[in-house]
Amino acid sequence: MARPARAWQRMLSGRRLDLLDPTPMDIEVEDIAHGLAFVARWNGQTQGDYAYSVAEHSLLVETLYSRLTPDAPVKWQLAALLHDAPEYVIGDMISPVKAAVGPGYGKLDDKLQAAIHIRFGVPAQVPAAVKKQIKKADRISAWLEATQIAGFTQAEADKLFGAPDPAITKGLSIALRPPLDVRSAFKARHTQLMEAL
């Protein structure tokens, strides 16, 4: 009889995360920050000397979410920062690949997201209205990334992601940083939000 395939990953913190049945106790922000800082968005197809990481994207989404909803409770700002946190172990797949993989990817992502939320004091299920605003911030982030570092024309980005309100994006520019700098920035913002929570 064949042994079942291994479904867990050893984290640098020493935690053993079961990808099929994740528990909040096996999740550490250090692992998330490290993993996300080394996962490239856009399949690495961005300009610059460093890959644009999911950690950098997460920081931008949280900034945009806070601009869109300036009176949002801290727990929802934290949810915005952690919106792609499962990618620290399952990687970042572009939308066309997610669609090709099918619903299994979404189920895995949902389980990990719920465990991450519980670990940091955010409800496992985020209200639909909050999720919608985080998704809006995510799309604005994608527009900024597309036009600033991924080689899209503004017309292409407008068609794919929708043209953002210039008041929301004012003064935001993407500057690529080494992964260790981004890792530190992600952990620092997470710490700020946890202390405010």
Verbal overview:
- It is a single chain.
- With 197 residues, the chain is mainly alpha-helical.
- It has a single domain, classed as Orthogonal Bundle (Hypothetical protein af1432).
- The chain is 56% helix and 3% strand.
- The chain contains 10 helices and 2 strands; from the N terminus they run E-E-H-H-H-H-H-H-H-H-H-H.
- The protein has helices at residues 29-37, 54-68, 74-81, 87-90, 95-101, 103-119, 128-148, 154-161, 166-169, 179-196; strands at 8-10, 16-18.
- It has a two-stranded antiparallel ribbon with strand order 1-2.
- Strand 1 (8-10) and strand 2 form a beta hairpin.
- Helix 2 runs antiparallel to helix 3 and helix 7 runs antiparallel to helix 8.
- The longest helix is centred in the C-terminal third of the chain and has 21 residues, at 128-148.
- The mean pLDDT is 94.
